[in-house]
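Quick one: structure for this chain?
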Amino acid sequence: MDGPPLSRRPRISAQRAISLAALSEPPRSAGLPERTAVALRQALFGGTAVHAAFIPLFWALGVPALALYNVVSVLVFVRTRMLTHKGRIHLVVPLVVGEVVLHQALSVHYLGLGAGFQLWILATLPVLLLIPRDRLAVVVGGVVVSLGAFLFLAVRYDGVPPPVALAPMLLSAMRAGNEVSAFLFVSAVTYFFARTAEQAEGMAQRAHRQTEALLNNTLPTSIAARLLTDGRVLADSFDEATILFADIVGFTTLAQRTEPAALVALLDDVFSAFDDEADRLGLEKIKTIGDAYMVAAGVPVPRPDHVEAAARMALGMLRVPATLAEHHGVELSMRIGIHTGPVIAGVIGNRKFAYDLWGDTVNTAARMESHGSSGEIHVSDAVKCALEGRFDFEPRGVIEVKGKGPMKTWFLRAKSDA
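Got it. Here's what it folds into:
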């Protein structure tokens, strides 16, 4: 049995990880979300066309003042459409709302309330929601002006005969057209905001999933989940864990005679193979330091077979250089060290999170690697005792270990057939 593997976390390439930040925010065009900018430009184009169509209509109805004002309206809408490209939304919306209020006031003055033009003052109120939140005073001012104008027109022209008397059938048709078009406009704006909210929610959910994927690619899955929930530094103490360090022998010399791109490709293949082995056995990769690789068994999820799992990992790691040597045209050799004992684990940093381990067990495992030999798995006596009868060992004897003094150590050979 190889022990229970941890849940396999998704791999994210460096390029993919860099691009996730861009995906977390909707694309923006000159300070305005792109979808909103496109929709606003389309609405302004439609408004320009409608006002242009009313020029000959009002002229034919004998209201030249409204025909001329529609010429001004066309120019205003063309100008505001240009402003959207510059992202000056705080100017675009007030200009549009102001044009509508003044236009409908003139229409009511000449044609009366019966034509229904005043309804457009209320219909354009939702457009004020497009103004950025930091321009709240503009929004409030627009609402006050629009509602004030609507109430003023309703009171001032109630029962007042208009200067231009339209035929009853034409007046009814004009009112019905304004009622239907205003309703359709409000419905379209409502649909737009509903779709925008739905898309924003979808983007937020995708961004959350991408954040989780990035954290899971950086931290152990269980630690990432706790960090997202608690939002604070985590620390745990483990009475039993096994630490493994591996190092490429002669890497400094190899780096001096290898092209940078080829060297990085080599390290990527080596460490990716180690990652696959760690995933297969349910071990937790802690970090890489140059050409050194650190992995732990029994953290952050305790397991009774942590020492055996680390031993299996080490034996698997020794087979990796041979499989890659022919592909890269270089000879590789690993030096591996293992020690077992208590450790402290936790997340450090407040910007670039790192899950790390501390304690004498970590230091001793590092010494086992640095005092080891090429192509060997150098282990402490504690590891040998824990695996007695299940793996074969060759005694190395008592050696002087820096910072530890005399230690009895062993070379792990293979799994015992007994």
